[in-house]
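Entry:
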Amino acid sequence: MKIMKNINKFMALSVMGLLLVFTSCETTELDITSNPNALTPNQASVDFFLNSIQEDFIRQFEGDADNDLNDNWQGGGNTTGDGFNELGMELTRIINGAGRQYASIYQDSDMDDEWINAYLGILGDIRAMTPLAEEANQIHHIAIAQFIEAYLMVTMVDFFGDVPYSEVIQAAEGILNPSVDSGASIYDASLLLIDEAISNFNQSAASEPTTDFYYANDYTKWVRAANTLKMKIYLQRRLVDSQAMASFNAIVNSGNYIQDTADDFEWNWPATSATQPDTRHPRYGINYTAGGAGEYMSNWMMNLMDTTNDPRIRYYFYRQRPAVPGAEIDPNEETLRCSLETPPQHYVDGNFTFCWLDNGYWGRDHGNATGIPPDGLLRATWGVYPVGGQFDSDQFLPVGLGTGSGGNGVSSLLTAFNVDFMKAEMAMANGDMAGARTFLLAAFDRSMAKVQAFLVGREGGADTSFAPTTAEITSYRNTIGTNFDNGDMNDKWNVLAEQYWIAHYGNGVEPYNFYRRNQFPVTLQPNLEPNPGEFVRSMYYPSNVVNNNPNIDQKASHTIPVFWDNNATNPIAN
């Protein structure tokens, strides 16, 4: 999928000029543009470009598990692969966030990979591919690229706020240090680009893409995804756009959007190779190693699911041991130091779980920055969904290379269950509690069915007798409805938000946006540090960009909200 990367780098550099002036450690890679033995632009293939665009796009969300030289992820402060999903999940307690101070966790130097992949990778390839595709009337190649560009730029705004866009494509005209555009204007431009993509999907093309990783050249599904992306945009700016709800409902009334899980916009990891390129789900590659798991699962998330008998828990988490020090077994200073410690006062005051959980759900509290003990083969880790790991059937065996489903997981971006959640949020915002309840339960139904179906045909040795029964699923579903019915408005938002978090396990972008937009749930476990600094409402610009582009100034702080977040205060759970 990456055999045209040399061409891609050449074309990206020629189109985008000096958008990023890299430091010495990064210019080495770009030296290939002057390699006389490398492929030249006139040898470029539209199909190879599109392959690269599609893969780099999913890497923008999932990052890289092993610093594979075939992609654009070469470094960064976070060793867990970076990517927007990872960042969002950490901030929303879906997975453990390690660090007592937000300012030290999410630094400007950590954002280089996301920026490089977006501009020199995806946009660079799109700008290089488009004239070739136009000349050959490969209109569906262009449409896919337009959809990806719109999705990419909306997400860049969601994480960074104002970013370069309009001047990026004018590098050939002498604009080598582009200024930022407002996030609102980029959202508007993305909506127009999506409409162009829909028009192009509905036209005939001279030839079809040889590989469409998402929909296998089913352009009816691409149009549904495009309209769903527009719904997502309207929802995200509902606080600042008086027409957002009407625009959202117009698409709902059309019926032409993702309504069935079979139409979900997602990337399926084939897991055919573990090295260069690594085609396993990145979270699998990080956690299913000879040394065991490389990440910590969130105590908040596991506790929420365990104590409420959530029927998805055995699909989500795999336990390597049946007990955690401090719970069913004695505290252990070597493997879980906090099992000998008392909880901080703000944990006691808020009645938050601390350090250990029952039933072998061995994870970490939010903000735990202590050293890494020898617990890689002890702690809980990702299960079969969504990363292609192991289904938890009480085997309590250590993970290893190739165990479970081998990493043939899925990265879900636009889903039918999220459409139901979007409808529920819009109903809540409109004061329609009955509608919100209906859509909330529909979202759970789709999430549950998607998770159950995921095991089929994946992990051959899984003991499915541990799968939840219909009665257990119904009981849990009824509890969701009862809690929603019996709660006040804040309780209802908490029920919706907690279910949103659970269903989106693996996708950190949507919960991060939801949290900043709605400031729920208020039940999130706080940082271990009583004063960790203000919550991250947008990421810093990469240090290399700020240092080398005089038209981009660093933000005063990461508390500066993106344009659609007009809340007067930061989220309460810090």
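DSSP finds 20 helices and six strands in the chain.
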